[in-house]
Amino acid sequence: MTAKPDLDSLPKIGAPATRALHDAGYTSLRDVAGVPRVRLAGLHGVGPKALRLLQEALQEHGLSLG
User: Fold this and answer.
1) Considering the chain, what is the average pLDDT of its residues?
2) Is pLDDT at 6 greater than 90 in this prediction?
3) CA atoms within 13 A on the CB side of 36
4) Which CATH number fits domain 15-59: 1.10.150, 2.40.128, 2.110.10, 2.40.50?
5) pTM reported for the whole predicted model
6) 3-state SS track over 1-65
């Protein structure tokens, strides 16, 4: 059984996406909860795979992207 992703950090989504999120002030899974997908997709380095992984990690906590 796999442990739930930690709400206080970001899941493994790749270095470019992680850098882009950190640069925009999103440093944890909790920070991206409720943020519109289109806003995150507009960050250079955040692509469909990163968005999917973020959504999946959020869903494990009953949360989602906006």
Assistant:
1) 94
2) no
3) 3
4) 1.10.150
5) 0.91
6) CCCCCCCCCCCCCCHHHHHHHHHCCCCCHHHHCCCCHHHHHCCCCCCHHHHHHHHHHHHCCCCCC
